[in-house]
Amino acid sequence: MGEVTLADPWVAYCGTPPVPGEAGWNLDPWLGAVLVAGLALVLGRASHRRALLAGWGILALALVSPLCSLSVALFSARVGQHLLILLVAAPLLALGLPAPRRQTIGGIGAAAAAFAVALWVWHLPGPYAATFRSDVTYWVMHASLLAAAVWLWRGLLLAAADRPEVVFLAGIATAAQMSALGAFLTFAPRAIFPPHAYTTLPWGLTPLEDQQLGGLLMWVPGGLAFAAVAVGGLAVAMRRGRFAA
Fold it and tell me: How many Å apart are CA 87 and CA 149, to the nearest integer?
């Protein structure tokens, strides 16, 4: 990370914006301690230890790897960090945690709504900029995104066998809203994130190009991941006669 001083509240948690060749690992001992303590807390309750360990490892990688530093300079790197957490770590953690007794339609719908709200709020200019000025806000962002994603993936994965039609509806709605956010960022006529007004240039990108790249990442991998879940739910539902062929 870049040099961070407590006297400078405007330095982002992950440090100062790096230039090519300077993005480093996040060696924050407090983060390491929280990750170890959190793993010890949930590992004893795991239903699938391998999935939980894999998910926790991916989560740790997203937070301590150079992605943390790069996300200060590039919006696209922040989106990449979020996608690693939301599309890889979260479903693995959802599989590894104990399953609830039942999945209700309302519960899955609430999870999809919470995920949509968290995703849009933290990728709007005001809340996004606030994460660069406050460590607390930065971690509230990550905690809320992770919690909403794990909640949603638990619903999608655990309801797949019994309620595939609900999986289809929640999956297609999530794919649509995630793609809409990505399209909004991609086709916006100007850059809308002040923290990256000058930080992208050393990386050969204008702020608008960096924003467009982040939007495409959100749109294509993000939208496709949930669209695939929806298609899987639809196929199972049609085989069982839940939807007319």
Answer: 8
| Integer CA distances (angstroms), 143 to 63, 107, 148, in order | 12, 20, 8
Q: Which two tokens stand for residue 135?
A: 């460590």
The full set of domain ranges for the chain reads 29-239
Each residue's pLDDT tens digit, 8-61? 346 899 999 999 999 999 999 999 999 999 999 888 877 789 999 999 999 999
**What is each CA distance from 152 to 83, 94, 112, 158, 163, in whole angstroms?**
14, 9, 6, 10, 14
Angstrom distance (rounded) from CA 196 to CA 74: 7
pLDDT per position as a tens digit, 223-235: 899 988 888 877 7
Query: Are the C-beta atoms of 185 and 123 separated by less than 8 Å?
Result: yes
pTM of the complete model: 0.90
